[in-house]
Amino acid sequence: MSVVSRNPADPADVLVDLPAPGAFAAADAVERARAAQADWADGGAAARSAALGAVAAAVEAASAELAALAVREVGKPLAEARAEVARTAAIWRYYAQAPYEATGAVHDTAAGPGLLLTRRRPHGVAALITPWNFPFAIPGWKAAPALAAGNAVVLKPAPEATACALRFAEIAQEVLPEGVFTVVPGGATEGGALVSAADVVSFTGSSAVGRAVVRSAGARGIPVQAEMGGLNAAVVLPDADIAQAAAHIAASVAGYAGQKCTATSRVVAVGAALDPLREALAEALRAVSVGDPAEAATVCGPLITEAAREATTAAWQGLSVLAGGTVPDAPGWYAAPTLVEKAGPGHRLLREEVFGPVAALLPARDLDHAVRITNAARYGLVTSVHTADLGAALHGLDRLDTGMIRINAPTTGVDFHLPFGGAKASSHGPREQGRAALDFYTSSRTYTLAPAGAS
Questions:
Q1: Bridge pairing between strands 232-236 and 382-386
Q2: pLDDT in tens for each of the 455 residues of the chain?
Q3: CA atoms within 13 Å, Cβ hemisphere of 145
Q4: Residues 6+ positions from 354 with CB-CB distance below 8 Å
Q5: For residue 300, what is the DSSP state?
Q6: Per-residue burial over 290-307, b = 16 or more CB atoms within 10 Å of its CB, e = otherwise
Q7: What is the SS3 string spanning 161-213?
């Protein structure tokens, strides 16, 4: 088996073609990480903080190179690639302060002399299995808190982002102690081996693989979190600023060719919002710049693979197309940002995440109906609600079965210092990012300190 990564804008451009290391190599990487972890955890807060800060500085110093690599390997538009690299540095700098935070509390005993202490301790080795669409940010928001808490990490990136992961590892390994950050390229074999050997697992990717990871980790009794995508809705009420809502939704549908788990794929127009939104959103999508991701003006670049483009084009077949519905004549795997309507309740667009620049426009009689439509999907990652009525917004907040709700904002875009995660089939286990990540990568222990001779 080989690990192959191609430029989706120019498939003849092969970035990586190397033999997959296999299960034994993955298991060996975990053991080497385990040997390095104790010294890393025992080295003290100052050492861990300085190391994570040094990673942030190194990412900033290499920002132009890393952004260009993301453009070339995963087809991320240049503006988004630059923003991702900047965000990655910010994530590492944020978690560089975490080693100094309290790891427990002191309590009085219920009766008699002594003290009760709680303390959070690292699990050991964290296996991180990451997707290709955020090749620097997602590994960063998993690895940085794991390392800050005293774990060592082994990263298994998606094959399509192998070059990005290997280059980032080179940068990080120059400032981190040997063995605490390792990359194992490969596919299902290597990922499965890591899940079978590590002490804690964090996964982001498809639902089918995520469920398998959860089953495997659960059988071993180790902590596991899995982020498995979304089928995100934008709810637009009649009193919304329609032009603003259309701009936000178009960006969430078409940005990075819809290849974000937070992308909008269902647009629920309430009552009188339907007709003006139909026109404004179709116009906004037609105006999106599609093309070479290396061009600064590009918003919608290529799909990651030919199969991904085929899945996207298949999703709009047989529906009423309001915008897009075409495949540009270009060497890469492009598809025009597309808006469709008249998708029946059982249609794939309303059941499964397509992961492409296509969305379905759906009418709703009122807000309650819109909430029911939104909640009908088995996923519940993020929903946007567009309205000038705070009461309606709060009603939506209370009723939507969604992990994250954004009012008058795109579904895309998250703040790394707050918890990230969804409901239902979107997520399993504790939240990522913010302080929630530090809790996930540690276990709580309770100590009783009784004076000698106490009865």
A1: parallel
A2: 899 999 999 999 999 999 999 999 999 999 999 999 999 999 999 999 999 999 999 999 999 999 999 999 999 999 999 999 999 999 999 999 999 999 999 999 988 889 999 999 999 999 999 999 999 999 999 999 999 999 999 999 999 999 999 999 999 999 999 999 999 999 999 999 999 999 999 999 999 999 999 999 999 999 999 999 899 999 999 999 999 999 999 999 999 999 999 999 999 999 999 999 999 999 999 999 999 999 999 999 999 999 999 999 999 999 999 999 999 888 899 999 999 999 998 899 999 999 999 999 999 999 999 999 999 999 999 999 999 998 878 877 789 999 999 999 999 998 999 999 999 999 999 999 999 999 999 999 999 998 887 66
A3: 24
A4: 258, 265, 311, 312, 315, 348
A5: B
A6: bbbbbeeebbbbbbbbee
A7: HHHHHHHHHHHHHCCCCCCCEEECCCCHHHHHHHHHHCCEEEEECCHHHHHHH
Q: For residue 217, give the amino acid letter.
A: A
Of 434, 417, 413, residue with least CA distance to 83: 413
**What residues are labeled active site?**
227, 261
Does residue 232 come out as left (phi exceeding 0), alpha (psi in the -120 to 50 range) or beta?
Answer: beta
Cα separation values, 178 from 94, 189, 195, 260, 309, Å: 22, 25, 22, 33, 41
Q: 242: how many CB neighbours lie within 10 A of its CB?
A: 19
Q: Are 60 and 168 within 8 A, CB to CB?
A: no
Tokens of 57: 């500085």
DSSP 431: P
Mark out the alpha helices in 224-377 (DSSP H runs). Answer: 242-254, 274-286, 306-315, 367-375
Q: How many angstroms separate the CA atoms of 390 and 387, rounded?
A: 8
Question: Which pair of tokens denotes residue 263?
Answer: 């992308």
Among 183, 132, 178, 181, which residue's Cα sits nearest to residue 159?
132
3-class SS at 15? strand
State in Å, rounded, how far the first CA of the chain is from the last one: 64
CA distance 189 to 20: 9
Alpha helix ranges (H) inside 359-454? 367-375, 390-399, 434-440
How is residue 94 written in tokens? 């944020």
For residues 48 and 40, is the Cβ–Cβ distance under 8 A? Answer: yes
